[in-house]
Amino acid sequence: MSRWYRFYALAVAAVCGWALFTGWWLTPVERLTGVPKSVRDNPGSYRSHYSGYHRYYGGK
Amino acid sequence: MAESMNCPKCKAPLESLMIVSGVVVFQCPACSGAMYEADDLTVALKLVGVKPARLDCPRCRRPMETATAYEGKIELDRCPACAALWFDAGEIKILRTLSGVENIVGKNSDEEPGPVPAPVDAPAKRKTIDDEPNSKLPPEMAGAKNADADGAPTITHEGRVYRHFQTSVPVTTSVLGEFPWIAAVGDTARMRDFIAPPFLLSQEVTAKESVWSAGEYIEPADIWTAFALPGEPPAKIGVGPVQPNPWTAELPAVWRSFWFAAAACLGAYVFFVIISSGSKVYEGSFSVAAADAERSRVGDIFEVKGRTSNLEVLLDTNLDGHWAYVSMALIDADTDQALDFGRELSYYHGYEDGESWSEGGRYETFYVPSVPAGRYYLRVEPETDAGQLSLRVAVKRDVPLTRLPLIALALLLWPAAWAGLRSGAFENTRWMESDHPRVSEDDEEDDDQ
After folding, report:
1. What is the pLDDT of residues B34-63, one digit of tens each?
2. Which chain B residue's Cα is nearest to A14?
């Protein structure tokens, strides 16, 4: 147990340090390629992955 | 040879009780069941309908059988190997009634019937150290009355503190081997056991003498090996009084690793808090009206410098009684790559039944992970039920997250806590068999009721 835990603790500390160093987090972010160069001139030429299907029905 | 046995029903330690001269029964102080020798009964039992029982013999550990007698009016458990009979609480009384014999126990049916057996349904009085007639300690031992935190008396021998485990009155039921004294069935003594696992000190007190002996726990496998016994030793049952707690040796090392890793995580967090820039790399405003045919907007190009790090994005809106969903893309100005993400905001408030209320918020902060250095711009495309939405976006880079070391601490803590609980459970099982069982206050209250 103590040997296993030693490696486990080192792994947790290493992952924590790596996450702090690289800014890693669990935020759902889609990494895409093929974005057209014309987006700056014509923002509508590219649709975000997250747009178009979300509707909010909350509130009072 | 004194034997230690456990109740086949509730696993409590059985207590030996001499109810007639030469006749010893083993009684469970917890459930009031009792084990008798078949030969000790003065009543001949015609057992029928034998079938496998769900109990194991407390003496030889072999599976017992269930059978009925007196036309099925009483059901008994017996061991086909050693002829032990197990009576549940109250069954002795039933047997007396059915047989019409008051003295159902006697050494031999030829002999004069003994006194009426003590009712086995009543638990025997638990012996305590205060009942000890000869409680004097050898000169090298001290402090028998110095109870520890759990109320157990302790003694110190050769610098080692032994805790009182159990005072018992074993009875010799059989003898195997050679002894330097005359051993006889029915011999009894009062024994006190003190433990400092894996070491044991036992005091055996008779009317003539008081003898102390020391012992040390040996693993069954070691004995098997030492005597070159065939096969494997039998599986351990429960926890022995001086059986070493396997977690006790592990726990200090586990906690050392825990504190080391926890300090490393917190140290890393403090280090990155100190060195991180947390600098604002972009701030822009967008406005979208319901009448706009195209609601997507792009911001100015900004530069992210340094190592790969996260971006903290703050959305600040003018929502008031409305909702918005903001689809965003962080687009690399020099390549065709983008990071897509979205956030939902809503803000409602009012005054109802004399109290003000609010729901949601106008602001939202989130983190875009692992963004390499480069030139970027934001594309924002809000959806909203508001007539006009103003949106301010601020972006900072390299913001260490407090939640990371906290999650790391939680991940580090659970195995260590689990090991601590296992260690405590092991000790609870050990002391459950002693005169000082570890019970919670709730248990004690339950017992009092």
Report:
1. 888 888 888 888 888 888 888 888 888 888
2. B265
Q: How far, rounded to the nearest angstrom, does the alpha carbon of residue B296 sit from its chain's CA centroid?
A: 58
Q: What angle do CA A13, A18, A24 make, to 5 degrees?
A: 120
For B79-129, strand residue ranges (E) read 84-87
Interface test with B, best of A39, A45, A47, A54 (most B CBs within 10 A): A39
Nearest to A29 among B269, B340, B350 (CB): B340
Phi, psi values for residue B402, rounded to 5°: -65, -30
Q: Can you tell me the distance from the alpha carbon of B248 to that of B255, in angstroms, rounded to the nearest whole number?
A: 11
Sequence-ordered list of residues with C-beta below 8 angstroms from that of B232, at least 6 positions apart, any chain = B224
Burial class (CB in 10 A: 0-12, 13-18, 19+), A58: exposed
List pLDDT tens digits, range B351-404. 988 899 999 999 999 899 999 999 999 999 998 888 999 999 999 999 999 999
Nearest by CB to residue B261, choosing from A12, A29, A58, is A12
ipTM of the prediction greater than 0.90, yes or no: no
